[in-house]
Amino acid sequence: MFSFTGPDMFSRRCVWVNGPVIVGGGPSGLAVAAGLKEQGVPYVIIERSDCIASLWQKRTYDRLKLHLPKKFCQLPRMPFPDHYPEYPSKRQFIEYLESYARHFDINPQFNECVQSAKYDEVCKLWRVNTVCDNGSEVEYICQSLVVATGENAKSVVPEIEGLKDFGGEVIHACDYKSGASYKGKKVLVVGCGNSGMEVSLDLCNHDAKPSMVVRSSVHVLPREIFGISTFQLAMVLMKWLPLWLVDKLMLFMAWMILGNMEKFGLKRPALGPLELKNNQGKTPVLDIGALEKIRSREIQVVPGIKKFSCGSVEFTNGEKLEIDSVVLATGYCSNVPYWLQETEFFTKEGFPKAPFPHGWKGKAGLYAVGFTRRGLAGASADAVKISQDIGKVWKDELKQKKQKVPTHRRCISTF
Ligand SMILES: Cc1cc2nc3c(=O)[nH]c(=O)nc-3n(C[C@H](O)[C@H](O)[C@H](O)COP(=O)(O)OP(=O)(O)OC[C@H]3O[C@@H](n4cnc5c(N)ncnc54)[C@H](O)[C@@H]3O)c2cc1C
Ligand SMILES: NC(=O)c1ccc[n+]([C@@H]2O[C@H](COP(=O)([O-])OP(=O)(O)OC[C@H]3O[C@@H](n4cnc5c(N)ncnc54)[C@H](OP(=O)(O)O)[C@@H]3O)[C@@H](O)[C@H]2O)c1
User: Matching Gene3D superfamilies, A to Z (predicted)?
Assistant: First the structure.
């Protein structure tokens, strides 16, 4: 890595990276970095936050546990410690990631946010521009770019009529830590995905009074069926049966275990859970206790929101409810369109256009890791392919360089 400093010594630097730049120091970025490290390929990993896995460390609630068994959540080349439970807690997962980073000697450039990245057709190189927390700017120049900023980089905050006039506390689920400070309060949880369900459950467990907005439909499945992880069972069945049949079986088993939830306001979508996940990326909820609270009416299910007014909310069915606080469990989105100046490989929503399993590699050294809507297992699979691909290109170039007299790439940079 070579660094050139412009006339203003501390404000703008240009850095030549001898290898790829990885944007994002979450599980996906770490997994690619580990694969590159093992092959001796140099890289730079840039992270906007001051720690690795900032989603897990800073933007998740305290009671969070992995929803899938640990063997589906470990990163390549390093299993979870044997003493970890089947569903590690958030703290255990973070400790695992920290030891992963230590083991593979991964040291991201922290507090540095990628503002733009563009392929320079003249130089045949990527130009990645960052701004550091201290205000200084860096331009990295590299041959390949690994996008590892995640499917959940930005929280989705919907515009709802009257929300500004509500007057009480309004937070997104990414800022919710625990229900401890909500004791006795009436809280409206907007959204019934995994976050909405778990936040509602946590509020109940802290003696708050949650009402959960279910504006459309949702698939809720038990986390385990007959002692086997539902996810694992679906994976096994999918090896032998068509998707629609696996969906039917999953729904039948869910009905046997959970009963009919429609009478509690939880309608099932027309598409089965796996088909919905495949077609629209919508994750089914894996129940870890919220349903029991919905049955006992400790969590009230309410319909879509019409508008907020001072201290209350009105629903689409005309009913009104007085509330103290709002938690928006309204999901997340990719931030790729905000910084990557590229439209061939990524959609305008910031996901690879090519369907799974082809969305990991674009043209001109562009890669995407962790965008297959397949959680940590999907990110790990991408990371292995990407690091092997970059490793191969790297080794081929080294061989060629050994055979030829070295030529220098021309690279123009403005300071
Ligand atoms: C509440 C919650 C619970 C979840 N639980 C599970 C689970 O149990 N199992 C599972 O498989 N998946 C789960 N997920 C999905 C989750 O996305 C993955 O577990 C995992 O975090 C994905 O890793 P990633 O590295 O792709 O993305 P992230 O973990 O989001 O990491 C991306 C990193 O990129 C950084 N970044 C973003 N933009 C920039 C930029 N412009 N410049 C520099 N850095 C940037 C971010 O700060 C972040 O550190 C959960 C998600 C949420 C929100
Ligand atoms: N322990 C875990 O493993 C765990 C825990 C939490 C989250 N996660 C993962 O994190 C990811 C994000 O989950 P998430 O639950 O935060 O988001 P999500 O799955 O995208 O769910 C968002 C919810 O908000 C609703 N919503 C959005 N805008 C709304 C509006 N204006 N009014 C009413 N409702 C609105 C959606 O309803 P519609 O369906 O009608 O759009 C949906 O119910 C998922 O992959 C999830 O599996 C995992």
Answer: FAD/NAD(P)-binding domain
Last residue of a domain, one of 332, 359, 389: 332
Give yes or no for a contact between 246 and 274, defined as CB atoms under 8 angstroms apart: yes
Instruction: State the ligand closest to the CA atom of 378.
Output: 1
Instruction: Give the ligand at the shortest distance from the Cα of 198.
Output: 2
Please check whether residues 17 and 142 belong to one and the same domain.
Answer: yes
Q: Are 209 and 263 contained in the same domain?
A: yes
Shared domain check, 62 and 109: yes
Which of the listed residues 157, 215, 231, 277 should we mutate to test ligand 2's pocket, taking the one with most ligand atoms within 8 A of CB? 215
The DSSP symbol for 361 reads B
In single-letter form, the type of residue at position 339 comes to W
Domain that holds residue 369: 2-153+334-414
Q: Which ligand is nearest to the CA of 31?
A: 1
Q: Are residues 285 and 175 in the same domain?
A: yes
My answer on whether 8 and 54 are in the same domain is: yes
- The DSSP bridge partners found for residue 222 are 287
CB atoms within 10 A of CB 72: 18
**Within 13 Å, how many C-alpha atoms sit on residue 64's CB side?**
21
164 and 115 together in one domain: no
User: Do residues 353 and 345 lie in contact, with contact meaning Cβ atoms separated by under 8 Å?
Assistant: yes
180 shares a domain with 62 = no
Say which residue the tokens 């349903």 belong to: 291
- In the reported structure, the alpha carbon of residue 219 is separated from the centroid of ligand 2 by a whole-number distance in angstroms of 12
- What are 44-95's pLDDT values in tens digits? 999 999 999 999 999 999 999 999 999 999 999 999 999 999 999 999 999 9
Does residue 339 sit in the same domain as residue 269? no
Which of 300, 332, 364 terminates a domain? The answer is 332
Reported as a single tens digit per residue, the pLDDT across 144-200 is 999 999 999 999 999 999 999 999 999 999 999 999 999 999 999 999 999 999 999
Q: What is the CATH number of the domain that holds 197?
A: 3.50.50.60
> Which pTM does this prediction carry?
0.95
With beta carbons less than 8 A apart as the criterion, state whether 302 and 186 touch: no
Mutate to test the pocket of ligand 1, among 52, 89, 92, 152 (most ligand atoms within 8 A of CB): 152
Copy the structure tokens of residue 399: 């061989």
